[in-house]
Design brief:
This protein folds into two domains: 26-132 and 261-320, 3-Layer(aba) Sandwich (D-Maltodextrin-Binding Protein, domain 2), CATH 3.40.190.10; 133-259 and 326-351, Periplasmic binding protein-like II (D-Maltodextrin-Binding Protein, domain 2), CATH 3.40.190. The chain contains 16 helices and nine strands. The chain has helices at residues 2-25, 40-49, 62-70, 83-91, 111-117, 146-149, 174-184, 194-207, 219-225, 235-242, 273-284, 286-296, 303-308, 311-314, 323-326, 339-351; strands at residues 28-34, 53-59, 78-79, 128-140, 168-170, 211-214, 230-234, 248-251, 258-266. Strands 1, 2, 3, 4, 5, 6, 7, 8 and 9 form a nine-stranded mixed beta sheet that branches. Helix 7 crosses helix 8, helix 7 packs across helix 16 (339-351) and helix 8 (194-207) packs parallel to helix 16. The longest helix has 24 residues, at 2-25. The termini are far apart. The protein binds spermidine. Spermidine binds at residues 34-37, 82, 173, 175-176, 234, 237, 260, 262, 332.
C-alpha cells in the first residue's frame, strides 16, 4: 500500500513538473492597453494561433501608463499610448523604431490618418495608429432633466442644478480637463498662452464646485447605478455603456471636443520583438480590426476594416461625427515643456 501511494505521488510530481516545463516554454507577450479597448476573443485567438501566452494589463490614463513604463519593475512589449505620449516616450528613448517590412497588413491603414499621426510621430516610424475618438459628456437621463442638457455645451458642467449634489466626474487627465475648459473658452486644446490658460482656469474653478472626482474609469459603472449623473467621457466608452442602458446619453458639446489618436508601439527593451510584430500585424488584419472596432465602438484607422463596416457604425454620429463637427475638434498634441503650465492648473484644481 505504502509503495503504491509513493508511486502515485511520484507520478503526480513528474506530471506537474512536465506541465510547468511545458507551459513555461511558451513565449509570453506583455501588453499594456487602456481598459475596455480590445475584443478579448482576439487575445485568445492570437495565443492559440502563435502558441504563446499574453499577459494583458490595463491602465486608465496616459500618466499612469507612463509611470509604470518608466518604473524598472514593470516591463512590457507592446503599449497603447495616445499621440502626445508617443512623442514623450520617444523623447525618453523608450520606443523601438519599427521595421514595417514585418507588418504585411500595414497597407490597410488609412493614409489620411497616418498623415494626421505625423503630428506626433513625424515619419510614422515608431507608432501604428490603433483607434481615434472624441471626448464629450455622458449623462443618465433618469437623474438629469432634459432642460439641464438642452444647451448642448460644456457649460452643463457648471450648472447650478448640480450644486451640492456630488454627481459629476471629469476624467483623470490634465489635457482633457483643461482641454474642455479651453474649448469652452474659445481656445484650442493646445493653446498654452497665458490668456487661454487663465480663461480655462477661471472656468474650471466654477465647474469644480460640481465635480466630485477626477477618474477615468469608475464613471462607467457609476453612471449606470446613479452614483454619478454626468461625466466627461470618451465617445466609444460611452457607446459601450449606452448599449447596456437606454437611459445613458452622450453629448458632443456644441463648442467642439478634444480629439485623440491612440497607437500601438513596441518598447525598445521588449524581449519578444518578433512576437510583438506578429501581434501588431494580427490587429492590422482587416477582419480583426473590424471586429475589434465593433467591440470597442471606436473608429479604426484601418481603412480596409472601415470599408467593411455596416451602416449602423458608419452613420452613428457619436462614433463618426460629420466633417463640420470635426472641424471644431483639435487633436491633443505634444506640447513639450509647455505642458507644465497645464499640469499646474490641473493639480491646483484637484487640490481644491
Ligand atoms: N477605454 C479606452 C479609452 C481610450 C481613451 N483614449 C485616450 C484619450 C486620451 N486623451
Amino acid at each position: 500500500m505504502k509503495t503504491r501511494i509513493m508511486i502515485l505521488a511520484l507520478a503526480l510530481l513528474v506530471s506537474l513538473v512536465a506541465f510547468n516545463a511545458c507551459s513555461s516554454k511558451k513565449p509570453t507577450l506583455y501588453i499594456f492597453n487602456w481598459s475596455d479597448y480590445i475584443d478579448p476573443s482576439l487575445i485568445s485567438e492570437f495565443e492559440e494561433a502563435y502558441n504563446c501566452r499574453i499577459k494583458y494589463s490595463t491602465f486608465d490614463s496616459n500618466e499612469n501608463m507612463l509611470t509604470k513604463v518608466k518604473s524598472s519593475t514593470q516591463s512590457f512589449d507592446i503599449i497603447f499610448p495616445s499621440g502626445d505620449h508617443v512623442s514623450i516616450l520617444k523623447e525618453l528613448d523608450l520606443l523601438e523604431e519599427l521595421d514595417l517590412t514585418k507588418l504585411e497588413n500595414y497597407d490597410n491603414l488609412d493614409p489620411q490618418l497616418l498623415q494626421k499621426a505625423r503630428s506626433f510621430d513625424p515619419e510614422n516610424k515608431y507608432s501604428i495608429p490603433y483607434a481615434w475618438g472624441l471626448t464629450g459628456l455622458m449623462y443618465n437621463r433618469q437623474f438629469v432633466p432634459d432642460e439641464i442638457v438642452a444647451s448642448g455645451g460644456w457649460n452643463i458642467l457648471g450648472d447650478s442644478f448640480f450644486e451640492g449634489k456630488n454627481k459629476i466626474t471629469m476624467l483623470d487627465d490634465a489635457r482633457e480637463v483643461i482641454g474642455a475648459a479651453l474649448i469652452y473658452s474659445g481656445y484650442s486644446v493646445n493653446d498654452t498662452s497665458s490668456s487661454a490658460l487663465e480663461a480655462a482656469h477661471n472656468v474650471l474653478k466654477v465647474w469644480d464646485r460640481n465635480i466630485t472626482q477626477f477618474d477615468s474609469d469608475s464613471y462607467k459603472n457609476e453612471l449606470q447605478d446613479g452614483t454619478t449623473w454626468l461625466a466627461q467621457a470618451y465617445n466609444g466608452d460611452a457607446m459601450q455603456q449606452m448599449a447596456e442602458n437606454p437611459d445613458l446619453k452622450f453629448i458632443l458639446p456644441k463648442e467642439g471636443a478634444a480629439m485623440w489618436m491612440d497607437n500601438m508601439v513596441i518598447l525598445k527593451n521588449s524581449q519578444q520583438k518578433e512576437l510583438a510584430y506578429k501581434f501588431l500585424d494580427f490587429l492590422l488584419d482587416a477582419d480583426n480590426a473590424k471586429r475589434n472596432s465593433e467591440y470597442t465602438m471606436y473608429p479604426t484607422p484601418n481603412r480596409a476594416a472601415m470599408e467593411m463596416m455596416g451602416a449602423d457604425f458608419i452613420e452613428n454620429k457619436i462614433i463618426n461625427p460629420d466633417e463640420a463637427y470635426l472641424e471644431k475638434c483639435d487633436m491633443i498634441e505634444y506640447l513639450g515643456d509647455a505642458v507644465r503650465s497645464i499640469d499646474q492648473i490641473y493639480e491646483a484644481i484637484k487640490m481644491n
